[in-house]
Design the sequence.
């Protein structure tokens, strides 16, 4: 095989391979969120975060506006403090309610933000005051059974 | 009677000892060989056409089998994955399932196994035969270093080819899953790509996959050139060396994959 044909084939091969890596990076991996996208952090404390995981989405009206960055336990109040990173361009009122929700019965756990009517906005490092904890299914069922038993006894 | 049993036991222990010493010796020899090959790297890149020729033989000529296998693996993954996911009403996560399994595991591992059997065996047979026909000795006689002329280009040709082949494998696999999932079964293309993009991380998944395939490429190429160079210069020796290349490369890929996975994905998605 002549030198030029060989060079051509190797060139095509390398171009294809690099193209494949780019495809994986851009189309599959969505490189747009590479590095840390600009954004600001807000905190919220919950009594119980249920199955919330790092990098879980933060949604407002169903639209992803940020990600959960860290979860830690407050040593004094024994509440879970969740730090969320909100993408720039999304601003929330100071009286926003954060609740831990599940998409479907078995789906992923995410944080839902419901904006209120306050004129002040949450800034970087701000704290969400009103929160709603995760619904723990076992507790709910236990409560239901307890109520049922109590109701039955009264009759 | 007792004497016979005793000497048989001693012979057994002796054989175990010989096998251990042999194994350790070969490992040490292979390590020194690896250092020597890496030391000859400048030679491989100074005469770039030698390395380009090897990229052609191990990379370009492996394209067909890699592309076709990738396509079919992706299509089968989509069919099987859909079957299970749809029971939980999660069939829209098909793209996530296929992309993550291909990019993290199947792409590097299966492409590596195919590369070992397609290109690694060829490299071993070629170098072994060069040794059997005394071409290597002839080179040494002419003061041409066979490590620089024969071994290093083949090693680097494999190291360069492997990540590209693995990326192509994953790409074709995802394309195959797209064909089956979206075109054949009728999953919404927006959900297929959107869920995939939100689940696949560039650094944690794509880059780690490329690192894996790079390590596998280096392991397979090293085993291939070493077995070829170490082969007994007979027809039988070359055949044994070729078999050893495929077996050792496959085992090395699977073992390395486990070790790399433990380090890479430990706690990342906890």
Sequence:
């Amino acid at each position: 095989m002549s030198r030029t044909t060989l060079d051509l084939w190797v060139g095509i091969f390398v171009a294809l391979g690099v193209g494949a890596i780019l495809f994986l990076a851009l189309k599959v991996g969505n490189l747009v969120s590479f590095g840390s996208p600009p954004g600001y952090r807000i905190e919220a404390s919950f009594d119980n975060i249920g199955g919330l995981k790092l990098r879980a989405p933060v949604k407002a009206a169903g639209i992803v506006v940020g990600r959960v960055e860290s979860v830690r336990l407050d040593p004094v109040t024994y509440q879970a403090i969740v730090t969320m990173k909100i993408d720039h361009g999304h601003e929330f009122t100071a009286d926003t309610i954060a609740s831990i929700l599940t998409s479907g019965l078995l789906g992923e756990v995410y944080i839902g933000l419901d904006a209120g009517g306050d004129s002040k906005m949450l800034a970087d490092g701000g704290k969400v005051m009103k929160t709603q904890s995760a619904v723990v299914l076992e507790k709910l069922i236990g409560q239901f059974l307890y109520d049922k038993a109590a109701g039955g006894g009264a009759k | 009677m007792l004497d016979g049993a005793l000497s048989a036991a001693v012979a057994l222990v002796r054989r175990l000892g010989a096998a251990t010493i042999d194994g350790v010796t070969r490992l040490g020899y292979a390590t020194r060989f690896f250092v020597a090959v890496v030391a000859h790297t400048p030679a491989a890149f100074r005469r770039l056409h030698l390395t380009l020729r090897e990229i052609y033989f191990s990379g370009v000529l492996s394209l067909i089998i890699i592309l076709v296998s990738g396509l079919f693996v992706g299509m089968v993954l989509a069919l099987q994955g859909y079957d299970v996911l749809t029971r939980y009403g999660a069939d829209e996560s098909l793209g996530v399932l296929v992309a993550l399994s291909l990019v993290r595991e199947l792409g590097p591992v299966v492409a590596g196994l195919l590369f070992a059997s397609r290109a690694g065996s060829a490299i071993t047979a070629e170098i072994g035969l060069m040794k059997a026909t005394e071409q290597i000795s002839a080179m040494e006689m002419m003061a041409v270093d066979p490590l620089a002329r024969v071994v290093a280009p083949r090693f680097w040709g494999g190291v360069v080819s492997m990540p590209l082949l693995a990326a192509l494998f994953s790409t074709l696999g995802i394309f195959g899953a797209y064909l089956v999932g979206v075109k054949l079964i009728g999953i919404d293309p927006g959900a297929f790509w959107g869920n995939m993009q939100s689940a696949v991380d560039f650094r944690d998944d794509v880059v780690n996959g490329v690192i894996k395939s790079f390590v596998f490429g280096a392991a397979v190429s090293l085993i291939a050139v070493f077995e070829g160079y170490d082969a007994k210069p007979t027809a039988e020796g070359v055949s044994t060396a070729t078999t050893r290349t495929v077996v050792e490369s496959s085992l090395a890929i699977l073992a390395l994959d486990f070790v790399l996975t433990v380090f890479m994905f430990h706690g990342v998605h906890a």
